[in-house]
Prior knowledge:
The protein has 43 helices and 26 strands.
Amino acid sequence: xxxxxxxxxxxxxxxxxxxxxxxxxxxxxxxxxxxxxxxxxxxxxxxxxxxxxxxxxxxxxxxxxxxxxxxxxxxxxxxxxxxxxxxxxxxxxxxxxxxxxxxxxxxxxxxxxxxxxxxxxxxxxxxxxxxxxxxxxxxxxxxxxxxxxxxxxxxxxxxxxxxxxxxxxxxxxxxxxxxxxxxxxxxxxxxxxxxxxxxxxxxxxxxxxxxxxxxxxxxxxxxxxxxxxxxxxxxxxxxxxxxxxxxxxxxxxxxxxxxxxxxxxxxxxxxxxxxxxxxxxxxxxxxxxxxxxxxxxxxxxxxxxxxxxxxxxxxxxxxxxxxxxxxxxxxxxxxxxxxxxxxxxxxxxxxxxxxxxxxxxxxxxxxxxxxxxxxxxxxxxxxxxxxxxxxxxxxxxxxxxxxxxxxxxxxxxxxxxxxxxxxxxxxxxxxxxxxxxxxxxxxxxxxxxxxxxxxxxxxxxxxxxxxxxxxxxxxxxxxxxxxxxxxxxxxxxxxxxxxxxxxxxxxxxxxxxxxxxxxxxxxxxxxxxxxxxxxxxxxxxxxxxxxxxxxxxxxxxxxxxxxxxxxxxxxxxxxxxxxxxxxxxxxxxxxxxxxxxxxxxxxxxxxxxxxxxxxxxxxxxxxxxxxxxxxxxxxxxxxxxxxxxxxxxxxxxxxxxxxxxxxxxxxxxxxxxxxxxxxxxxxxxxxxxxxxxxxxxxxxxxxxxxxxxxxxxxxxxxxxxxxxxxxxxxxxxxxxxxxxxxxxxxxxxxxxxxxxxxxxxxxxxxxxxxxxxxxxxxxxxxxxxxxxxxxxxxxxxxxxxxxxxxxxxxxxxxxxxxxxxxxxxxxxxxxxxxxxxxxxxxxxxxxxxxxxxxxxxxxxxxxxxxxxxxxxxxxxxxxxxxxxxxxxxxxxxxxxxxxxxxxxxxxxxxxxxxxxxxxxxxxxxxxxxxxxxxxxxxxxxxxxxxxxxxxxxxxxxxxxxxxxxxxxxxxxxxxxxxxxxxxxxxxxxxxxxxxxxxxxxxxxxxxxxxxxxxxxxxxxxxxxxxxxxxxxxxxxxxxxxxxxxxxxxxxxxxxxxxxxxxxxxxxxxxxxxxxxxxxxxxxxxxxxxxxxxxxxxxxxxxxxxxxxxxxxxxxxxxxxxxxxxxxxxxxxxxxxxxxxxxxxxxxxxxxxxxxxxxxxxxxxxxxxxxxxxxxxxxxxxxxxxxxxxxxxxxxxxxxxxxxxxxxxxxxxxxxxxxxxxxxxxxxxxxxxxxxxxxxxxxxxxxxxxxxxxxxxxxxxxxxxxxxxxxxxxxxxxxxxxxxxxxxxxxxxxxxxxxxxxxxxxxxxxxxxxxxxxxxxxxxxxxxxxxxxxxxxxxxxxxxxxxxxxxxxxxxxxxxxxxxxxxxxxxxxxxxxxxxxxxxxxxxxxxxxx
Length: 1393
């Protein structure tokens, strides 16, 4: 088995690697046309108009270059004495007038082209979203089942790729066209004035092109690799958040944090390689940009000296050539955006092609729409295998006939193929062989919508949408109007009147994501109300009442029988009590139909499959009416129970299988078990290679209990306790944890080692100082951000979080980046100074050649230094920014996992929103310190150096230029405000799109069942239309000022040229000084001017950073962190007048003055109707929520082991408990990892022997052993699918393997057949009773159930109704009390309780 597993894993790894290589090859071939993969004919007019205006704006710049050359010629001629001062001023004024006109044209053209390109990006995004949504909606269920990581992780990736594509084809694409046209036009100008000087100057361009193309291919590969790693991080994130209750209950927070950090660390490693390539691109381009002037200036001087060209022609040529190269250089930082967009566009197109060509194919629609449908359904020798389990047939040669107008039952063990019938009937899947007929018409030929309009499937785990109760019911009619009377009738049918009356908003109450704010039974009843409103000819009920209590179930089933009289109804169930003697039954076993017939006939056949199934139920019924001591209860007291057909079950067969023999009970489930938690000392905190993080208080670590330990009772004085089962954890020392200590998946960092309270013991002074600094920075960081609205964080507030968050190496990199940025900043003024000195050689007679050569070689030295500095500053800033982003993401994940359960109930904290924030927004936020802080630092340093240098050369001209600063600042500030406002609105609109996308495809089965594709298509179209409207407004408002922001510097330049001519003509300054100031200021301010082009992207990054910091600075004041008393063993549970309402519905009390006691070692059943508050008690016991009373106002209302649960250390409390919920949670991982989830790898409980024992105890071992990979079979998202019963048994095994002090079973057997449920009941009873049936007070079991057989194994019953305890007592006493609430519940009677 191990060899098989290993070879299978190696095969999968090789297959994945080959798949990645194929994907990269496709991406490489896609090229730049991938940017336009979603362009339609309707987009072309906008694209052409935008491109035309970009060309116009770009052509204005070379025209300005010509004006520069002409003006500089006037200054050089004046310096050489060729023209007078009046001529200088007159000519300069004329050229400045022309420059003003060209600048105004550039202003207008930039406004238009920017706005049009933003609009084009919005249209591209809309097109991509629509096409991908429609293609996804057309896929069959097999495609969804085989998504690696599941749809929850898949969808945010699509969102991020669309955003990358949208961003790239907006401003960056416009910039690309602008720069390309500018470069070509400037090149044309240069060739016109001097073709030979131009060719000499740009002779190295082919080499630049070759180097850049090689680096571009490497960049594409790195971007593809990073996208894959980010998707793995998303898989970890969404898996944890979707199952947050299970993660908390099993203390899996640290493990999930470790997984997430490992994933983002891998992604960061790929990004650092990507940053290396990008920095190399920029550095090489920067070197060539300056170095080309070595040969250009040298040859230009030669042309002037020999008289072939005058100074003005040479200067114009060189300036034009400079503009050619500078256009490319300036665009380089935007190139990464275009490359990301190219990769995103290619991946989206590739995704569309893969979806279309996928072997699972699109959903077969069919074409036939019969006018009449009587309701006959026939399966003819159908064989079917799920795509996730190709080696395990779900149905084998099954032939079944469901006659029209009759109710037919399908029963069988878990995993026998019952639910598969319903899945095939609504055509989620196609049979491997055989066929299904609807009124003699093959199912595959029928129109899929017609079919689902006539067949309703109600599954066990009913899904509600994030709408009101009313809307969830009326969705049965899609978007057709439904009268209030019809809704009221459906509510009455589903027995929801009382629940709705208790809600302040009634039918208009929001049910939350997937109906999370209502109980499982209430969800099932809403789903039945929805099915009743549909009223289709065929109804398939797949365990659709399993979460209902007997009273409600009896009434609902009676209502269903009356409603479905004369209509085809297929009931898939484990509950034989629903089946009447005259009902027809099919029995499935091992994926085959093993028996069929009317119940009364099948019962008479001894030894048959039905008889065996019935015998197991009869035995459970017999157990249920037998007292624990073995004395039979009088049948006179129990013959009116919910099972109305007990008389026909006259089979005296008993199944007494032994689950745990004596050897098995030791060491894990030994009756003499005394393993507890002892407070010791936390192990020394180890520094993570990524970032030193803490996850709240340390989880408890199990040790063996001393022989003399005793049970603890509550000390009413609150000053102490009777024995050593509880211990206070002091201070903050326990909060330190190691992230690196998890060696294999699906295990926590707990280990069977003592817990050290003082983390400073044994640490060096340096380590102690580091810990203090980390805590200080984290406290100050939180205060800094939490005091302001995250949506309005300033750039300074975001940037100032960078330094405190960085580890030492990243801080050193940041310092180095700042140093190299200053060197890079100094290179431009230095180059400008040398450039000015070179210009002076054109009119200086002495040693022209020698001085030209010296200055040309000086430029080469500046080019080398600037190239190195450019690489270092870009790379180091990127690396530091990635480190900062990873710290924020890890800290955000840590704090999210520390949030109370109510945090996840709020819509603003939905899985899709958090996933988008930690994925797409985190990537955008990285640009702030990675790109824009560096650019801003360079701009500030460059301007500072330029101003100082210029002040020395010509203070008057410099002061005049500085006087323009406030005007430029005002324009930039207005642009920034407008851009930030609309970028924020755009991000919010995109979040809304993500919500709809998530709701549609995570719940795709329900969407398909109810034929709601068009409803959600319309809803999605509305959301993307709203986003488009916001985007178009953003284009108009930001475009209106973008041109002015860009052209403003040219207006200032025009004024400086005129003023410079004025003061030179007056003889106040020498011509050389003025030219020197011109070149220094122009070169420097041109760099600064391009910073304005990044303002929209800066604001995108600012909004993204604000959202990321909101999560990274979430409060850590959860009630889960308040307890400091460590639990060694969980004993007696006491509720004393507990009142509770969920935080999202504070006006609706779920529990009202609930008081009862659960003794240690007892088995207590909490029963009652759906929504009565049963599961809420379990949530309070596990500290998922906190009761509303405060200790200062009286005695505690909820106690464990005699202590107020609020004062208990949460992780240690949960480590002594295990809960099995009604909806089983399966994590993405192997079966063995799922069972051992939350256990330390070194723990004996996590050994394969213990895992196998737990699997045998739940009756799933045989199934696991039959799988090719056995316990190494991957299940969960992206793995093999399990039936509901199989998943439930894995969840129960996970609870049993932990050997808890308190075991909570919340409807844990509702998805199991009678035999499997019997195995679980036997296991639980033996665990409670111990060897030989003698109770030793070892394990406390709390059973929350509607199942009478589960109630029967309990010693004590607590019955709730409407949040109050209406009856409690021993099981046998309550059964005898025929007039009591419990007796009525068992008999299925309504009555006062």
